[in-house]
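Many introductory courses stop at the sequence. We go one step further.
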Amino acid sequence: PGPRSVSPPDRPILAIETTQRTGGVAIALPEGRVLAEHFKPARRHDDRLMPAIDELCRRAGVGPRDLGGVAVSRGPGGFSGLRIGLTTAKMLARSLAIPVLGVPSALVVAEGTPDAAGLEPEHRLLVVLAAKRDHGWLSHLERNETGDWRIATDHPPATGDAGAVDWIRLGLVLGDEHLPETFREAAARAAVPVRSPRFDPVACLRLAMRSFAAGEHEDPVALAPIYPGPPEAVVRWDALHGPA
């Protein structure tokens, strides 16, 4: 079975996807409409995010106090975009006293990539993010009893190379242009197709709506990004000035 249909929320829900050069914001309304503002790769998230949220709410006829929850794609992803997205979501949650939810970006791309929806129920999905050299942040995903993607219980997300992948049960690999060639070669040997992921704010929104409907949310103070290692900016700072 494919993912469950999503019922409209009681109050508008906002979702933010800023982990990559593409992304955007989306809002779900109680009457069933879903609106989105997508970013162009050339635009900086710190220049565009708040104006995009403002424009989206204007189009929806929604004021800040009308929001019933906010969700954000939590990474891995780019250093600046990831932290701008989380900071904005936490600020909205705390200032408006509404629930907040951080959604692992692997689940966002699984929800938003059409090829993933067509996999057989027994097949797993591998999402490779934050690839560097021969390693990446590996998320093995499987279907749960309702047809939604979840993190495989026997493969917690972790940094690894192609040798750390369970190729036997895989039906698809999602990896961007930075996917190491070792992964592509291993996928070819296992006859597993490789596709580019989509970082879609509407996918983040659908996942958040299911979670909020189930009563799931997080402490905005404790909400943190998923980042597999020290950010490049921190590495360079430490090299110049020494560890803090």
